[in-house]
């Protein structure tokens, strides 16, 4: 069993699993990376046949501006890295369809956004490892935790991970998730920052759509 005060990386094998996947992609030359906007140049004599960058936008000022926004958001939210997506739905697709691995479990509040319902069913964990609990019900959540632990050896041994997905403020009924003093945000950084839980939450999703009346979503990853 992991020590009581162990970090997230020490409590699960998720980081190891993701590292193995990335190494495998590197070895097969199928891992895509955006070029560094500070060093890339359209004057390169090489031709790119490995990406969908047909218009060479990754080498333009557009990509540089995009990278600058991500860096500014990372500084503001005290999180690294930050990934900027086209929408909140696309953000959830990028996370739930790739990060949870076979053997993992996804647990979410029944009133979570529809994009989580849809994308979690398409994850690597398969639909048989995705469970919902009654809205804001701590007893219901606790029962799911205990049942998942009892039914899955991997969770008990620390070989698998359980992903809990909740919202700070639910658009379905306007209620906050059960937590301390979540009636106001701290400096615009959200309830996770208000409660000082930045280092206890693996990903944080913030959306531009409702708050800034714009398009886009951003995924923040804590330092682990």
Automatic annotation (TrEMBL):
<dbReference type="GO" id="GO:0009102">
    <property type="term" value="P:biotin biosynthetic process"/>
</dbReference>
<keyword id="KW-0808">Transferase</keyword>
<dbReference type="GO" id="GO:0016740">
    <property type="term" value="F:transferase activity"/>
</dbReference>
<dbReference type="InterPro" id="IPR050087">
    <property type="entry name" value="AON_synthase_class-II"/>
</dbReference>
<dbReference type="InterPro" id="IPR015421">
    <property type="entry name" value="PyrdxlP-dep_Trfase_major"/>
</dbReference>
<protein>
    <submittedName>
        <fullName>Uncharacterized protein</fullName>
    </submittedName>
</protein>
<dbReference type="InterPro" id="IPR015424">
    <property type="entry name" value="PyrdxlP-dep_Trfase"/>
</dbReference>
<keyword id="KW-0663">Pyridoxal phosphate</keyword>
<comment type="similarity">
    <text>Belongs to the class-II pyridoxal-phosphate-dependent aminotransferase family. BioF subfamily.</text>
</comment>
């Amino acid at each position: 069993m992991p020590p009581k005060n162990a970090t997230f990386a020490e409590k699960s094998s998720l980081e190891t699993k993701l590292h193995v996947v990335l190494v495998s992609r590197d070895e097969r030359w199928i891992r895509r990376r955006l070029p560094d906007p500070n060093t890339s140049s359209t004057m390169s004599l090489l031709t790119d046949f490995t990406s969908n960058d047909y218009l060479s936008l990754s080498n333009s000022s557009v990509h540089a501006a995009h990278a600058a926004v991500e860096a500014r958001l990372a500084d503001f939210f005290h999180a690294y890295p930050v990934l900027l997506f086209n929408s909140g739905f696309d953000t959830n697709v990028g996370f739930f369809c790739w990060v949870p691995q076979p053997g993992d479990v996804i647990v979410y509040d029944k009133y979570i956004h529809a994009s989580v319902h849809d994308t979690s069913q398409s994850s690597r964990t398969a639909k048989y490892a995705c469970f919902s609990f009654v809205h804001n019900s701590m007893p219901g959540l606790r029962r799911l935790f205990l049942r998942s632990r009892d039914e899955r050896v991997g969770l008990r041994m620390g070989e698998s991970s359980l992903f809990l997905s909740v919202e700070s403020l639910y658009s379905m009924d306007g209620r906050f998730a059960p937590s301390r003093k979540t009636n106001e945000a701290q400096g615009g950084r959200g309830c996770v920052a208000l409660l000082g839980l930045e280092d206890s939450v693996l990903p944080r999703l913030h959306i531009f759509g409702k708050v800034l009346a714009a398009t886009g979503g951003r995924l923040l990853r804590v330092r682990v």
